[in-house]
Design goal:
Length: 621
């Protein structure tokens, strides 16, 4: 395993203009106090809720900080990382599931929705985390997994023990098999993680029995939401965590919660469909409409909760991939359902002007016209990291546009190129209206770890496809906090603790050179990715009008993407070669009297040229 042996930092002058603009020139003057003041929690309820333009940081709990030295990240560890997040300038954290779980899908297999997995801590530590975060004006969001639970959940254990047709089985999808002896699955549906969506059980008397449906792995049986028990359990779960101070939820896999009641066979998938993409073509579950009744019910519950608890402003964000269909997003994000829904298209778009614009413009136009907020992200725990994606030799090719975050290309990677593009990408996405979700480690410029040993891999996708698909482990490698390899680069503590006598290996191995990406190494390096993230988030707060939408002046240069956001003009050169700003100004006259606010890469002494793979912000007032 290798990581870049050199520092990931790209020499960059992240410059912010202080002096007034000089007509016709682009000043790149020294420092300017960008750090805007941040609201304190709790907020008062206002027409513009805190989350509309919030920056939310996704904490993948296993891999953030391990406080007790067992090699697995935990809640106490998150508390120690809060100072880093405060300095970064985030408004909230989203915790991936920390509920009791066999961890076969790292928490997305929930065994109990009302507790904390002992490997991560306990409820008292959870409460302490909420309080410590609040002290730093950081809100805490959790992850709710409504489509399925763990096969270790008490309800599923009871269903296995109960008879076909019992109320215990009615909470899930148990069906008789097809074939003379029921030996064939009830239908032809494909699982997201590979293979059939059905697994057969052995009945209490030892005979081969019914089948149960699992959209993901066999350890994740799907709930049947037409069962009132399921509805009631999730209602009390939401309230349970709101009462502990949780300010919202990211809702997992909402696109597959509904199912056509008769569970008919899915039509054949289009020819050439990748193994990992077959499930997405099943019209009898993907975007099946019945689920929306439940999201409306959740929203009523939340609205009532807020009314009963003045000062609370809760947010829900739904996870639904809607390639090229911003209209589908509106089915989720609206005043009666979710407050937000991720706009994933930009994350998956190739690095080229036409595709970037073709993913931003329709989403912005469709959602804004409906008054729905935008929710951007460039990384998450299910997707190859941006530095690697943008470093692919085909990253600027249309052929790389799979529109599915689980379908990767296997082309060679140039990490230096990927890093410089990822720098431009964060400057681009941070300038868009709406909220921004970050995934831990992107602020350090971590690449995907592509060469994890086979024996270290843990993702069910890897196992369910017999290794044909590498899965998502490579973006989940524990974070490097220091350069010290004896503490797993600061991920685990240096000294022994009561519960663990010595630092052990992290649950997923870190590659050599990982310490070069550490927080410690980047902390005081002005050219580092970390410094760029801090500056971009700070500039976003200080310079962008949250109510300003996007305007698109026509760009005459094929490599230049350009938009106005209020008084700020964002110019991205996605090509390798520098571009003369005079050419860009031809179609955006206001640029001629602008001053440079920031640049993702050095503009050296000649701001009349925009280097390749660089994003700049200009202020016209
Ligand atoms: C989406 C989550 O982000 C992913 O990590 C998980 O494996 C599936 N949903 C199943 O819960
Ligand atoms: Ca631990």
């Amino acid at each position: 395993m290798t990581a870049s042996p050199t520092s990931p930092a790209v020499a960059g002058s992240l410059s912010v203009a202080g002096p007034p603009a000089v007509a016709g020139s682009f000043s790149v003057a020294g420092s300017f106090p960008l750090a805007g003041s941040r609201a304190t929690v709790p907020p008062t309820a206002t027409a513009s809720a805190w989350w509309r333009d919030a920056v939310v940081y996704q904490v993948y709990i296993r891999s953030f900080v391990d406080a007790n030295g067992d090699g697995i990240g935990d809640l106490a560890g998150i508390i120690t990382g809060l100072d880093h997040l405060e300095a970064l300038g985030v408004d909230a954290i989203w915790l991936t599931p920390c509920y009791p779980s066999p961890q076969l899908d790292h928490g997305y297999d929930v065994a109990d929705y009302f507790a904390v997995d002992p490997v991560y801590g306990d409820l008292a530590t959870f409460d302490r985390l909420v309080a410590e975060a609040r002290r730093r004006s950081i809100r805490v969001l959790m992850d709710v997994v409504p489509n399925h639970c763990s096969s270790e959940h008490a309800w599923f254990r009871a269903a296995l023990d109960a008879a076909p047709g019992s109320p215990e089985r009615a909470r899930f999808y148990f069906r008789d098999g097809r074939g003379r002896l029921g030996e064939l699955p009830p239908n032809n549906w494909r699982s997201v993680f590979g293979g059939s969506t059905w697994t057969r059980v052995t009945e209490a008397d030892g005979s081969p029995g019914q089948w149960y449906l699992h959209t993901f792995s066999p350890w994740q049986p799907d709930f049947d939401w037409s069962c009132p028990d399921v509805v009631a359990m999730f209602r009390s779960m939401l309230t349970f965590w709101f009462d502990r101070g949780v300010e919202g939820f990211r809702a997992d896999a909402v696109a597959v919660v509904g199912k056509a009641p008769e569970l008919p066979d899915a039509p054949p998938v289009p020819e050439g469909t990748a193994e990992n993409d077959a499930w997405a073509h099943n019209p009898y579950t993907v975007f099946w409409p019945t689920a929306h009744d439940h999201w409306r019910d959740w929203r009523r519950l939340i609205d009532d909760y807020e009314a009963a608890n003045p000062g609370r402003e809760i947010v829900t964000v739904s996870e639904a991939y809607t390639p090229d269909r911003p209209d589908l997003l509106l089915r989720f994000v609206n005043p009666e359902q979710f407050h937000q829904s991720f706009c994933f298209d930009l994350m998956l778009a190739p690095w080229r002007v036409d595709t970037l614009r073709a993913t931003i413009e329709p989403v912005e136009a469709t959602l804004s016209a409906a008054g729905a907020p935008l929710t951007w992200t460039m990384n998450n725990h299910d997707t190859q990291r941006a530095v690697t994606r943008y470093g692919r030799s085909d990253a600027a090719e249309l052929s790389s546009w799979t529109k599915n975050n689980l379908v990767y290309t296997g082309t060679p990677v140039d990490l230096a190129l990927g890093t410089v593009r990822a720098r431009a990408a964060i400057a681009l996405v941070a300038a868009l209206p709406g909220s921004l979700y970050l995934f831990q480690g992107e602020e350090l410029g971590l690449p995907e770890v592509l060469d994890l040993p086979m024996g270290a891999r843990q993702d069910p996708i890897f196992f369910r496809t017999d290794g044909r698909e590498p899965g998502r482990d490579g973006c989940r490698v524990p974070l490097p906090w220091s350069a010290d390899p004896t503490t797993s680069y600061g991920f685990s503590p240096a000294t022994s603790t009561a519960t663990s006598p010595a630092t052990v290996s992290p649950w997923m191995p870190q590659p050599g050179g990982w310490g070069n990406y550490s927080v410690e190494q980047q902390h005081d390096a002005p050219e580092s990715m970390l410094a760029l993230y801090r500056s971009v988030l700070s500039a976003r707060r200080a310079c962008l009008d949250p109510d300003a939408g996007l305007e698109w002046p026509t760009s005459t240069h094929p490599d230049v993407l350009m938009f106005h956001r209020g008084d700020v003009t964002v110019v991205v050169n996605v090509g390798a070669d520098e571009v003369m700003m005079a050419d860009v100004c031809a179609t955006a006259p206001r640029l001629a009297s602008s001053r440079l606010l920031l640049s993702s890469s050095p503009v050296h002494d000649d701001p009349t040229r925009l280097p390749g793979n660089t994003c700049c912000w200009f202020a016209s007032s």
